[in-house]
Write a structure and sequence with these properties.
Layout: E1 9-11, E2 17-19, E3 23-24, H1 32-43, E4 48-50, H2 58-67, E5 76-81, H3 88-102, E6 109-112, H4 120-132, E7 139-142, H5 146-155, E8 162-166, H6 174-182, E9 186-190, H7 205-211, H8 215-225, E10 229-230, H9 237-243, H10 253-260
Parallel strand pairs: 3-4, 4-5, 5-6, 6-7, 7-8, 8-9, 9-10
Antiparallel strand pairs: 1-2
Family: Belongs to the aldo/keto reductase family.
Domain NADP-dependent oxidoreductase: 21-263
Keywords: NADP, Oxidoreductase
Protein backbone atom coordinates (compact mmCIF):
# COMPACT_ATOMS: atom_id res chain seq x y z
CA UNK A 1 0.00 0.00 0.00
CA UNK A 2 1.69 3.19 -1.22
CA UNK A 3 0.66 6.15 0.93
CA UNK A 4 2.65 9.08 -0.39
CA UNK A 5 0.21 11.98 -0.86
CA UNK A 6 -1.66 14.07 1.70
CA UNK A 7 -4.38 14.71 -0.90
CA UNK A 8 -5.07 11.01 -1.44
CA UNK A 9 -7.09 8.65 0.72
CA UNK A 10 -8.90 5.37 1.18
CA UNK A 11 -11.88 4.61 -1.03
CA UNK A 12 -15.16 4.04 0.80
CA UNK A 13 -17.61 1.35 -0.24
CA UNK A 14 -19.59 3.80 -2.40
CA UNK A 15 -16.51 5.05 -4.26
CA UNK A 16 -16.05 8.29 -2.29
CA UNK A 17 -12.42 8.97 -1.33
CA UNK A 18 -11.83 9.76 2.35
CA UNK A 19 -8.46 11.55 2.81
CA UNK A 20 -5.94 9.61 4.88
CA UNK A 21 -5.20 12.53 7.19
CA UNK A 22 -7.62 14.99 8.73
CA UNK A 23 -7.55 17.84 11.21
CA UNK A 24 -9.38 17.02 14.43
CA UNK A 25 -11.02 20.00 16.13
CA UNK A 26 -12.09 18.55 19.48
CA UNK A 27 -11.63 21.18 22.24
CA UNK A 28 -10.75 23.89 19.71
CA UNK A 29 -12.44 27.11 20.78
CA UNK A 30 -15.24 28.40 18.55
CA UNK A 31 -13.41 31.63 17.77
CA UNK A 32 -10.38 32.75 15.81
CA UNK A 33 -8.48 29.74 17.20
CA UNK A 34 -10.43 27.16 15.22
CA UNK A 35 -10.87 29.46 12.20
CA UNK A 36 -7.11 29.94 11.93
CA UNK A 37 -6.25 26.29 12.51
CA UNK A 38 -8.68 25.13 9.80
CA UNK A 39 -7.42 27.77 7.34
CA UNK A 40 -3.80 26.87 8.02
CA UNK A 41 -4.40 23.13 7.72
CA UNK A 42 -6.10 23.62 4.36
CA UNK A 43 -3.34 25.98 3.24
CA UNK A 44 -0.63 23.34 3.78
CA UNK A 45 -2.51 20.52 2.10
CA UNK A 46 -5.04 18.98 4.48
CA UNK A 47 -8.33 18.21 2.76
CA UNK A 48 -10.22 16.58 5.62
CA UNK A 49 -11.72 18.47 8.57
CA UNK A 50 -13.49 16.69 11.45
CA UNK A 51 -15.87 18.36 13.90
CA UNK A 52 -19.04 17.46 15.84
CA UNK A 53 -22.10 19.29 17.10
CA UNK A 54 -21.04 18.65 20.70
CA UNK A 55 -17.68 20.37 20.08
CA UNK A 56 -19.63 23.63 19.74
CA UNK A 57 -17.24 24.95 17.11
CA UNK A 58 -19.02 24.19 13.84
CA UNK A 59 -19.48 27.92 13.13
CA UNK A 60 -15.73 28.50 13.38
CA UNK A 61 -14.92 25.44 11.30
CA UNK A 62 -17.30 26.65 8.60
CA UNK A 63 -15.72 30.12 8.62
CA UNK A 64 -12.25 28.60 8.36
CA UNK A 65 -13.27 26.65 5.26
CA UNK A 66 -15.05 29.65 3.72
CA UNK A 67 -12.12 32.00 4.36
CA UNK A 68 -9.57 29.55 2.96
CA UNK A 69 -8.47 29.47 -0.67
CA UNK A 70 -9.65 25.86 -1.00
CA UNK A 71 -12.96 25.22 -2.75
CA UNK A 72 -15.71 23.63 -0.65
CA UNK A 73 -15.92 20.62 -2.98
CA UNK A 74 -12.25 19.87 -2.31
CA UNK A 75 -12.76 19.61 1.47
CA UNK A 76 -13.93 16.37 3.09
CA UNK A 77 -16.08 17.77 5.93
CA UNK A 78 -17.28 15.57 8.77
CA UNK A 79 -19.60 16.16 11.71
CA UNK A 80 -21.48 13.94 14.17
CA UNK A 81 -24.93 13.56 15.71
CA UNK A 82 -24.68 13.96 19.48
CA UNK A 83 -26.36 11.58 21.92
CA UNK A 84 -29.13 13.94 23.05
CA UNK A 85 -30.07 14.54 19.40
CA UNK A 86 -30.46 10.88 18.51
CA UNK A 87 -33.74 9.50 17.17
CA UNK A 88 -35.17 9.91 13.66
CA UNK A 89 -36.69 13.39 13.65
CA UNK A 90 -34.18 14.89 16.05
CA UNK A 91 -31.31 13.55 13.91
CA UNK A 92 -32.72 15.28 10.84
CA UNK A 93 -32.98 18.50 12.86
CA UNK A 94 -29.43 18.03 14.13
CA UNK A 95 -28.23 17.72 10.54
CA UNK A 96 -30.00 20.93 9.51
CA UNK A 97 -28.60 22.75 12.54
CA UNK A 98 -25.09 21.53 11.73
CA UNK A 99 -25.10 22.55 8.07
CA UNK A 100 -26.54 25.95 9.05
CA UNK A 101 -23.75 26.48 11.58
CA UNK A 102 -21.13 25.24 9.10
CA UNK A 103 -22.68 27.38 6.32
CA UNK A 104 -22.60 24.52 3.83
CA UNK A 105 -25.21 22.79 1.67
CA UNK A 106 -24.06 19.23 2.25
CA UNK A 107 -21.70 17.10 4.35
CA UNK A 108 -19.12 14.65 3.08
CA UNK A 109 -19.63 12.38 6.08
CA UNK A 110 -21.95 12.36 9.08
CA UNK A 111 -21.46 9.96 11.98
CA UNK A 112 -23.57 8.64 14.85
CA UNK A 113 -21.34 9.86 17.68
CA UNK A 114 -22.04 7.07 20.22
CA UNK A 115 -24.21 3.92 20.18
CA UNK A 116 -27.06 5.20 22.35
CA UNK A 117 -29.12 2.12 23.18
CA UNK A 118 -32.67 2.04 21.76
CA UNK A 119 -31.94 5.13 19.68
CA UNK A 120 -29.06 4.45 17.32
CA UNK A 121 -31.14 2.41 14.87
CA UNK A 122 -33.62 5.26 14.41
CA UNK A 123 -30.70 7.66 14.14
CA UNK A 124 -29.22 5.45 11.45
CA UNK A 125 -32.49 5.41 9.49
CA UNK A 126 -32.33 9.21 9.43
CA UNK A 127 -28.76 9.09 8.10
CA UNK A 128 -29.86 6.64 5.42
CA UNK A 129 -32.58 9.13 4.44
CA UNK A 130 -30.01 11.95 4.22
CA UNK A 131 -27.72 9.78 2.11
CA UNK A 132 -30.47 8.64 -0.24
CA UNK A 133 -31.50 12.27 -0.71
CA UNK A 134 -27.91 13.34 -1.47
CA UNK A 135 -27.59 15.60 1.56
CA UNK A 136 -24.45 13.71 2.57
CA UNK A 137 -21.85 11.85 0.51
CA UNK A 138 -21.24 9.12 3.09
CA UNK A 139 -22.63 7.94 6.43
CA UNK A 140 -20.97 6.15 9.31
CA UNK A 141 -20.70 5.59 13.02
CA UNK A 142 -18.33 6.35 15.85
CA UNK A 143 -17.48 4.29 18.92
CA UNK A 144 -19.37 1.22 17.69
CA UNK A 145 -17.97 -2.10 18.87
CA UNK A 146 -18.54 -5.26 16.85
CA UNK A 147 -21.76 -6.18 18.65
CA UNK A 148 -23.17 -2.69 17.97
CA UNK A 149 -22.27 -3.01 14.29
CA UNK A 150 -23.76 -6.49 14.02
CA UNK A 151 -26.96 -5.30 15.69
CA UNK A 152 -27.24 -2.31 13.35
CA UNK A 153 -26.45 -4.42 10.29
CA UNK A 154 -29.35 -6.76 11.08
CA UNK A 155 -31.86 -4.04 10.15
CA UNK A 156 -30.11 -1.37 8.11
CA UNK A 157 -30.44 -0.79 4.37
CA UNK A 158 -26.96 0.71 4.15
CA UNK A 159 -24.00 -0.72 6.07
CA UNK A 160 -21.94 2.00 7.80
CA UNK A 161 -19.14 3.22 5.55
CA UNK A 162 -16.92 4.42 8.41
CA UNK A 163 -16.33 3.57 12.08
CA UNK A 164 -14.39 6.19 14.02
CA UNK A 165 -12.80 4.65 17.11
CA UNK A 166 -10.22 5.40 19.75
CA UNK A 167 -7.09 3.87 18.22
CA UNK A 168 -3.46 3.90 19.36
CA UNK A 169 -0.75 1.35 20.27
CA UNK A 170 -2.36 0.60 23.65
CA UNK A 171 -5.80 0.09 22.05
CA UNK A 172 -5.45 -1.66 18.70
CA UNK A 173 -8.64 -3.80 18.84
CA UNK A 174 -7.37 -5.87 15.90
CA UNK A 175 -10.46 -8.11 15.87
CA UNK A 176 -12.72 -5.08 15.46
CA UNK A 177 -10.43 -3.67 12.79
CA UNK A 178 -10.53 -7.01 10.96
CA UNK A 179 -14.33 -7.12 11.22
CA UNK A 180 -14.59 -3.63 9.75
CA UNK A 181 -12.20 -4.49 6.93
CA UNK A 182 -14.13 -7.66 6.16
CA UNK A 183 -17.35 -5.63 5.89
CA UNK A 184 -15.77 -2.72 3.98
CA UNK A 185 -16.23 -0.32 6.88
CA UNK A 186 -13.39 2.20 6.85
CA UNK A 187 -11.68 2.37 10.25
CA UNK A 188 -10.76 5.82 11.55
CA UNK A 189 -8.72 6.82 14.60
CA UNK A 190 -9.62 9.38 17.20
CA UNK A 191 -7.12 10.12 19.98
CA UNK A 192 -4.16 8.61 18.08
CA UNK A 193 -1.83 10.10 20.73
CA UNK A 194 -3.77 8.67 23.70
CA UNK A 195 -4.89 12.21 24.64
CA UNK A 196 -1.24 13.23 24.88
CA UNK A 197 -0.13 10.32 27.09
CA UNK A 198 1.89 8.88 24.21
CA UNK A 199 4.50 11.59 24.59
CA UNK A 200 5.28 10.54 28.16
CA UNK A 201 6.14 7.00 27.03
CA UNK A 202 9.33 5.64 25.49
CA UNK A 203 7.57 3.24 23.13
CA UNK A 204 8.78 5.09 20.01
CA UNK A 205 12.29 5.99 21.18
CA UNK A 206 14.15 3.55 18.91
CA UNK A 207 11.81 4.21 15.98
CA UNK A 208 12.27 7.99 16.16
CA UNK A 209 16.01 7.49 15.89
CA UNK A 210 15.69 4.90 13.12
CA UNK A 211 13.42 7.01 10.91
CA UNK A 212 14.47 10.48 12.06
CA UNK A 213 10.82 11.28 12.77
CA UNK A 214 8.94 12.36 15.89
CA UNK A 215 6.88 9.98 18.01
CA UNK A 216 3.72 11.65 16.69
CA UNK A 217 4.81 11.14 13.08
CA UNK A 218 5.69 7.48 13.75
CA UNK A 219 2.26 6.81 15.27
CA UNK A 220 0.35 8.62 12.52
CA UNK A 221 2.28 6.72 9.86
CA UNK A 222 1.48 3.46 11.70
CA UNK A 223 -2.21 4.44 11.58
CA UNK A 224 -2.12 4.86 7.81
CA UNK A 225 -0.16 1.67 7.19
CA UNK A 226 -2.79 -0.18 9.24
CA UNK A 227 -5.34 1.15 6.74
CA UNK A 228 -6.74 3.56 9.32
CA UNK A 229 -7.72 7.17 8.60
CA UNK A 230 -6.38 9.46 11.33
CA UNK A 231 -7.43 12.90 12.59
CA UNK A 232 -4.90 14.30 15.08
CA UNK A 233 -6.18 17.45 16.74
CA UNK A 234 -4.17 20.62 17.18
CA UNK A 235 -4.56 24.38 16.99
CA UNK A 236 -0.80 25.01 16.81
CA UNK A 237 0.63 25.67 13.35
CA UNK A 238 3.90 23.85 13.96
CA UNK A 239 2.13 20.69 15.15
CA UNK A 240 -0.44 20.80 12.35
CA UNK A 241 2.43 20.98 9.87
CA UNK A 242 4.50 18.34 11.65
CA UNK A 243 1.55 15.93 11.77
CA UNK A 244 1.29 16.20 7.99
CA UNK A 245 4.95 15.36 7.43
CA UNK A 246 4.34 11.62 7.27
CA UNK A 247 4.25 10.91 3.54
CA UNK A 248 7.97 10.65 2.82
CA UNK A 249 8.79 7.48 4.76
CA UNK A 250 7.38 4.01 5.42
CA UNK A 251 7.59 1.84 8.53
CA UNK A 252 9.04 -1.62 8.08
CA UNK A 253 6.62 -4.49 8.62
CA UNK A 254 8.37 -5.58 11.82
CA UNK A 255 8.04 -2.05 13.22
CA UNK A 256 4.32 -2.06 12.47
CA UNK A 257 4.11 -5.43 14.21
CA UNK A 258 6.04 -4.06 17.21
CA UNK A 259 3.55 -1.21 17.66
CA UNK A 260 0.69 -3.70 17.28
CA UNK A 261 2.24 -5.82 20.04
CA UNK A 262 1.93 -2.99 22.58
CA UNK A 263 -1.87 -3.42 22.71
CA UNK A 264 -3.15 -3.48 26.31
CA UNK A 265 -6.84 -2.87 25.65
CA UNK A 266 -6.25 0.39 27.53
CA UNK A 267 -8.53 3.33 26.82
CA UNK A 268 -7.89 7.04 27.24
CA UNK A 269 -11.57 7.82 26.65
CA UNK A 270 -14.87 6.18 27.64
CA UNK A 271 -15.76 2.57 26.88
CA UNK A 272 -18.65 2.42 24.37
CA UNK A 273 -20.50 -0.11 26.54
CA UNK A 274 -20.23 2.04 29.66
CA UNK A 275 -20.53 5.59 28.37
CA UNK A 276 -22.87 7.81 30.41
CA UNK A 277 -25.44 8.61 27.73
Amino acid sequence: MKITDINAGFELRNGVTMPYLGLGTYQAENNQEVIDSVKYALEIGYRHIDTASVYENEEGVGKGIKESSVAREDVFLVTKVWNSDQGYDSTLKSFEDSINRLQVDYLDLILVHWPVQEKYKETWKALEYLYENKKVRAIGVSNFLQHHLEDLMMDCKIIPMVNQMEFHPYLVQQELLDFCNKNTIQYEAWSPFMQGKLFNLDICKELTAKYNKSAAQIILRWNLQKGVVTIPKSVHKNRIASNADIFDFELAEDDVAYLDSLDRDERSGPHPDHFDF
